[in-house]
Amino acid sequence: APHIGNTGVNDQDDESGRVWVAGFAVARASLSVSSWRASGSLDDYLATRGIVGITGIDTRSLVRHIRDAGAMHGALVSDGTDEVDALAIGRSAVDINTLDLVGEVSCAEPYEWVAAADERWYPLGIRTTSPAPTPRPHVVVYDFGIKRNTMRLLVAKGCRVTVVPARTSAAEVLELHPDGVLLSNGPGDPARLTDIVSIVRELLGRVPIFGICLGHQLLGMALGATAYKLKFGHRGGNQPVRHPDGGAVEISSHNHGFGIAADGLPADVKVTRTNLNDGCVEGLSCPPRRAFSVQYHPEAAPGPHDSIGLFDSFLEVMSDGQAPITQPIHTSPVRTA
């Protein structure tokens, strides 16, 4: 797109304490910043954080190549390195799927989160806040690389939020007396996180669980599913997912390179959403064990917001102890196929 960077950057929209990408490639970087909320340019933001960027790339051709050949390593060079040496650099890169990425991005110690989502940044008709329940439900959030807006929305819904490191034991979490546990998004291959899957399995049936993205994959594996690597992953904020029972379609935000296969799931686990592009599993629900999950990002910041009602679903199951509903409470019109 020719508009990358035209809105600039500001500290209010940061979803993490630091930038995690290794490089940034665009077709054309905007040289002007036009948003009234901007406190700086994208170029300055990346430069001050030591993130290399490159413009003038035929990104459409690059995306087509990845769709045909699959995700692969690459290299950005600016010192006159020729194509042969640049290719060697890319091929010699460490396979990130073999690294403990969750261990790198998770918090080191538990902490409380208190900031709420700001409704000014949501379209009219999108309800982010709810009257605070009494008593306030206590949600323990596993940080596998969490986006801050997940915690903001939980607080806006009246929850008390405690964030814990990725490998906090089930016993330690239960000692906090949570009303619910949220498994966050995060990077890497879920098949390498068998220790965390065991923790999730210990929590199943003992406390309501809501999984997002990597959290969805870990919950699925704890329920008996297997994880697999997608050829080129799902990226971007316009991915259509469908409810198999009702046919409703949500436009959703995705950023994942792995998926969950429904084979191996027990009879009490339902697939609640599928991807309209490739049919992969986008949502699970296990009513008897009060657990549900989605592969995409209902906390999406800046959007889309079709799935924000899933946070209300989580409140429901925490408040009345019943199984979570499989359809979100939509606060904006539902798209239909």
Question: Would you kindly provide a written description of the structure presented here, covering whatever features stand out?
Answer:
- The protein is of the alpha/beta class.
- 23% of the residues lie in helices and 23% in strands.
- The chain has nine helices and 13 strands.
- The strands form two sheets. Strands 3-5-4-6-7-12-11-10-8-9-13 form an eleven-stranded mixed β-sheet, with helices on both faces. It has a two-stranded parallel sheet with strand order 1-2.
- Helix 7 crosses helix 8 (214-223).
- The longest helix is centred in the first third of the chain and has 11 residues, at 59-69.
What topology does this entry show?
Elements: E1 23-25, H1 42-48, E2 52-54, H2 59-69, H3 83-91, H4 101-105, E3 111-113, E4 138-142, H5 148-156, E5 160-164, H6 170-174, E6 180-183, H7 194-203, E7 209-212, H8 214-223, E8 226-242, E9 248-261, E10 270-275, E11 281-286, E12 291-294, H9 310-320, E13 335-336
Parallel strand pairs: 1-2, 4-5, 4-6, 6-7, 7-12
Antiparallel strand pairs: 3-5, 8-9, 8-10, 9-13, 10-11, 11-12
